Amino acid sequence: MPPARRELSIRGTSVHMLSDGAGAPLLFLHGAGGGGRWLEFQERLAKTFTVLSPSHPGHGGSPAAEWIEHISDLAFHYMDLLDDQRLPRVHLVGASFGGWIAAELATMASHRIASLVLIDPVGIKVDGWIYPFLFGMDIPEVVATVFHNPMAALALAPPDQSVETLALQYRQGTALARVAWNPYLYDPLLRRRLARIAAPTLLCWGAHDRLAPLSPCGETWAKEIQGARLRVFAESGHVPHLEEPEAVAQAVLEFCRSEGAS
Amino acid sequence: MKFYYFHLMPYVMEHDEPSSWVTLSNRFYDPKQGQILYNQYLDQLEYAEALGWDGLCVNEHHQNCYGTMPSPNVMAAMLVRRTSRAKIAILGNGLPLRENPLRIAEEIAMLDVASGGRVISGFVRGISAEYFSTGVNPTHSRERFYEAAELILKAWTEPGPFPFDGKYYRYHYVNPWPRPIQTPHPPVWCPSQGSSETVEWAAKRRFPYLMVFTPIKRIAQIYGEYREACQRHGYTASRYQLTVNVPIVVAENDAKAAEIAKKNTMWVFNTGLRMHPPFWRPPGYMTEASLRRILQNPPPLPSDLTFEQADREGYIVYGSPATVRDKLKVFSDDLKAGIVCSGMNGGSHEATLEMMQLFAEEVMPHFREDAEIDETAGVGR
Fold it and tell me: What ipTM goes with this model?
């Protein structure tokens, strides 16, 4: 059964959200290019949780929001979404760019997070690492940087090269660039604030991530978030939830259960 | 019609790299060769004044072999002291690329004062690739451009000190010394590619609009939109508000000119503007509406432009003096452009000087019915 499609207005900002499943609420924050997609990963999570999968403003089916100019704007936006949906506490899962938003949110409001899962997040400055500049790459270069298994990229492939599709891609790139062009893919203030995260945290990392490699990026996150557990996915690059959806979904389920889901 | 000599100051070279911009390694740049080129190029600009050109144009581009003038104001400064009559048009400074755009107000005022009021100040956003070279967020480009322009114009026209509290630029004391010598300020030009937002902005302020390397059909369309916008703002555009930058090749006969154009002029498009595709389209540099317009009718990439297409669509003007005169009549009589900016490349310094002389003697005099008119009177401010 396809997920329910809903149009929300969060403090006046239009949001397109996919949702499905039953059980404790789980908010999934997608990465760049993942907006508006309901893929195997979410499908599997929806067997245990009520999965809420909104598109960030300017991504997927959500129109661009001019007021979003900083990553913290997105974190506040999702706190507003939790309020709007009357969800005091959720499991929060974020991948890549979505992981960055989730981490920002967690530094502000850990009490609203039953458990936090970050999948190859970006968002912090890591000593000895400069994130490869995806904005300067063509599609084959991006795929080679992001995916260990390039076949997994097909799930995100555009349906066609129509004006609508190209305009959507441009809108998504613009929404990302507004908050992530410079400093590129990080917030200089976030790393120090990670120590504030009190929610139980699982870090999922692709062993072959070339955008934010396990060493030093994953290791730095594991060090900065107290008590964080780190799971490495041997056959994945930057997007294990797309490259090994079954294994990552399983890890998320186990973690959320073990943390005595609210 | 007025003639301005436009220089890109290219570092002409052949290479197999995917991009002549941003990533073309500067190990290809030989400073010894650069010294020769800079001095030849400045000689050409000075010679243009001696031959009767009305203006000399410099411009800003970064990290490429297409144009080695990251600071046009530096080149303008050299010209100020070596010329005495011609306008010096800086086309232009990339406003959003500066962290402190008050420096542009200061530098242009310095040039204007030192030159006795010969400066024309182009305001540009910088082309797409510039945002990869400078790190400036392309999604801020348009807002920064408008805000920096407002700041610079205010700095030139309102007595300082005053505070300026913008979104991107903030000062407690705006009070630049010197002030420009032209009143209320040096003419401002908008070199652009024809986005409707910029057309509107320039028309409202009487800032001349410069179409760079654009097919004639599109120039006609944008000129139409610009004239219409001027009417909407309650005035009729002067012909000196409608300017164009088109490369010119003139030789003793058409065949010889075609040969030179194929080799030297097409280098600018095919190699000089060869760009890794992502550098053409940084996110947010243009509005989604502009993007849709382009996608519906995509222009050819300059690197794919053939000589035949460039010829057919009027990207270039070449031929014998008689042919070039005829082709320029399209600009003067049909498009009613007031100023033609053009660079020439004969293949060597000497050949370029000869070509310039041929143009000045055989072409220019046929378009001089407005010789006594000051093209900067009442426009650009």
Answer: 0.95
Q: Measure A72 CA to nearest chain B CA, in Å.
A: 18
Q: What is the pLDDT of residues B194-252, one digit of tens each?
A: 788 889 999 999 999 999 999 999 999 999 999 999 999 999 999 999 999 999 999 99
Q: Is the CB of A173 inside 8 Å of chain B's CB atoms?
A: yes
- Across the interface, do A167 and B288 touch by the CB < 8 Å criterion? yes
CB contact under 8 A, A174 and B296: no
CB contact under 8 A, A136 and B291: no
Which residues of chain B have a Cβ shorter than 8 Å from any chain A Cβ?
22-23, 132, 135-139, 276-279, 281-284, 288, 291-292, 295-296
Nearest to B137 among A137, A163, A181 (CB): A181
Q: Is the dihedral of CA B197, B201, B206, B208 positive or negative?
A: negative
Bond from prior residue into A183 cis (ω within 30 degrees of 0): yes
Look at the pTM and tell me if it is higher than 0.90. yes
Whether pLDDT at A258 is above 90: no
Cβ contact A57:A68 at 8 Å: yes
DSSP state of B64: B
Residue A134, min C-alpha distance to chain B (Å): 9
Question: A135 vs B282: CB contact, 8 Å cut-off?
Answer: yes
CA atoms of B350 and B345, how far apart (whole Å): 10
Whole-number Å distance between alpha carbons of B69 and B49: 20
CATH at A218: 3.40.50.1820
* Stretch (H or E) spanning A28: strand A25-29
Each residue's pLDDT tens digit, A22-53? 999 999 999 999 999 999 999 999 999 999 99
Number of domains within chain A = 1
With helix as H, strand as E and coil as C, how does A38-96 read?
CCHHHHHHCCCCEEEEECCCCCCCCCCCCCCCCHHHHHHHHHHHHHHCCCCCEEEEEEC
Report residue B87: phi and psi, to 5°.
Answer: -65, 150
* B319-346 pLDDT tens trace: 999 999 999 999 999 999 999 999 999 9
Do the chains contact at B136 and A182, CB–CB below 8 Å? yes
In this structure, what are the phi and psi dihedrals at residue A208, rounded to the nearest 5 degrees?
Answer: -115, 25
Residues from chain A contacting residue B296 (CB–CB below 8 Å): 163
Q: Is A177 on the interface with B (CB under 8 A)?
A: yes
Enclosing domain of residue A221 = 4-258
Under the banding of pLDDT at 50, 70 and 90, the label for residue A92 is very high
Does the beta carbon of A67 lie under 8 angstroms from any beta carbon of chain B?
no
